[in-house]
Amino acid sequence: MIRIKAGVPHRRRPRTSSRSSRCALTLGLPTVWGAVAVSYKFGCPLAEQSGLGARIVTSAVFFAVGTGLILHVRGALLRELRQARKVAGAAQSVLLRPLPPRLAGLNVAAAQLSADQGAAIGGDLYEAVATEHGVRVVMGDVRGHGLAAIGTAAAVLGSFREAAHDEPELGRVLGRLDRALARHLRERARAEHPSSGQDPDSPVAEEFVTLLLLEITADGDVWAVNCGHPWPYLINGAGVDTLSGADPLPPLGPFPLPPDLAATHCGYLLPDDSLVLFTDGAEDARDARGRFFSLPQALARAVRDRPVSPQNILGTVFTALLDHTNGRPTDDIALLVLNNEPAQRHALLGARSTARATPAHPRPTTHI
């Protein structure tokens, strides 16, 4: 950046000088303390004496130098940790950006828990956007976790954020995601070629992504395309039930998609109803005795108290998950909750009764 002052162009000083001064300070202080200790040991006559008083003084000097070094190293490590957390938070806000609390009449809340100790993000992905076609939602799970899974999740999410607005049919959105994943895996394969000398933790040949795409229209219709992902749970006045459609397709990655894709009509989201999307880490979580976590029971407990909000559902389920796994989940876990606002009750009830009277027509087949 160039700033003009008194008619003379002035360039802002680069930040390398401040970084260099911090590095010099980090290395200089231990050097000075070490020099003080060595100088005292070999240059001070008191250090050569063998009396009790001389030994006490010598021990005090070395204790002070050692304490100073420990405190300095601790401070440097804490600064590095704060910087790493800041970078991780920035990366999380870009990859899994916070969802708006409301989208086209739906209350929304989402959260993710990484299996890696201290990690802010993992291999789970989710997004919800309001489009002219309705609210479109993606929930996915990349095989494994770690840096390779994060890169794959970023490629899929970036494609969804564009395709959700551009494509009129949900099947074509899935086609865009499949092509984006294929490009990403080809680039990773070149980077992880044996000639590069890298030893990947997650080989490209074994990479896949389970994916669930939902579209919730203005009249409450729920359409879905499922690629090997768990179906969401529907919470309504009757309790907790699975929202399901046709048999899922294979996960993205290992197998090509069929040439004809059609979204499945899965029902309706009425006022006060909630949809809970999740990754399989939630239901695969085990306790110390090997028992699986019961997500439907946790959801039933979360909705006992009215009114139900997505934030309350998330808080109750994650608390139960951490209690069940003793705070150490073995897989990434992501939850996304969509709640239909009661304000649209009459419009959606009328739409549902009309839909029941008229058989639903399947969506036109999408060719990729």
- SSE order, one letter for each helix or strand: EEHHHEEEEHHEEEEEEEHHHEHE
State the helicity in percent bands: 40-55%
Figure out the total of helices. 9
**Rg calc:** 29 Å
- Helical/strand content category: alpha+beta
Mean pLDDT: 75
Low-confidence stretches: 1-17, 344-368
CATH H-tier superfamily of the largest domain: PPM-type phosphatase domain
CATH architecture of the largest domain: 4-Layer Sandwich
The CA-CA distance between the termini, in Å, is: 47 Å
DSSP summary, beta strand count: 15
Please render the helix and strand layout as text.
Blueprint: E1 2-5, E2 8-11, H1 16-43, H2 45-48, H3 52-95, E3 102-103, E4 106-113, E5 124-131, E6 134-142, H4 147-166, H5 170-191, E7 209-216, E8 221-227, E9 233-236, E10 239-242, E11 260-261, E12 264-268, E13 274-278, H6 280-283, H7 295-302, H8 310-324, E14 333-340, H9 345-357, E15 366-367
Antiparallel strand pairs: 1-2, 3-4, 4-14, 5-6, 6-7, 7-8, 8-12, 9-10, 9-13, 11-15, 13-14
Helix pairs in contact: 1-3, 4-5, 7-8
